[in-house]
Description:
Elements: H1 4-19, H2 23-40, E1 48-51, H3 52-59, E2 69-74, H4 81-92, E3 101-111, E4 119-128, E5 131-140, E6 150-153, E7 165-168, H5 171-185, H6 192-204, E8 207-208, H7 209-223, H8 231-236, H9 242-252, H10 262-281, E9 288-291, E10 296-299
Parallel strand pairs: 2-5
Antiparallel strand pairs: 1-2, 3-4, 4-5, 6-7, 8-9, 9-10
Amino acid sequence: MADIAASVLARLRNKAKAAGISYQQCLQLFMQEEFLRKLSKSGYEDALILKGGLFIYTLTNFESRATVDVDFLLRSVSNSLEEVQALIVKILAIPTGNDYIEMTAKGFEKISPQRKYHGISTQIIGKIKNVRVPFNVDIGVGDVIVPCAEERTIHTQLPDFESPVIMTYSLESTIAEKFDAILQRFELTGRMKDFYDIYYLAKTFDFDGVKLQTAISRTLERRGTPYEKDSFKRILTLAEDVDMQKRWKFFLKTIKDDTLEFSEVINEIQTFLEPVFDAIVNEDEWQNSWDISSNIWVKISV
């Protein structure tokens, strides 16, 4: 009988080499994908909405930055520690046909208010033969998705594996939450990924201005994030902040484009989000469309 597990490990090693990523990263992505496969077959796919770095990474066919965490928004299920633990255990027990993969959850704890959002965190331990692959699952609660959650098919690491079909965040709310995180911390932030992700999405996808404005406005309101008319100007000053530039250089080691200047990222964010933010502040409606081919907002013809 063929050793399927050994074959999969060898294929993942070759995949990592061809993609120019570490073997460990490729293993993590494969295990995260297997967790999503279990979720897609569990009947709970409407309860856990994929968001964050893994969502962006899979959406862009693994071209953006990689991530070690899997982030979800919890819906229609109690957010008590016991209920979430029971939910994850049920999902891990779902068969996918990949019996050589073992998955267990290790510890459940509440995410502190000082972290990115309220919720619950657990570590999943994946195992193939004697290869152990841990990754974190962070489950947030209480956030809003504009215009709505979207069903998406997730790309797989290896071509002959079933693609998970799950519910994901909208791109508009993804940007809204990252912009919110920047407004909350400004120069104190260590989350350089928020700047990069907004930059990357603005370079990759077209956007409807009203939907994006609504997502940002409702997210800021839901999270109670304070802002002022000149808050965006404060974001622009970050391009010249020495500590921010140091953090950016360190962050560049984690992405493929190690020549990207922080000032270029801030300039793109200004072009993309400043007019939307101004419309929110002035209580106007931003009836424009973001066009990636020209990298500008285009007036929508009525």
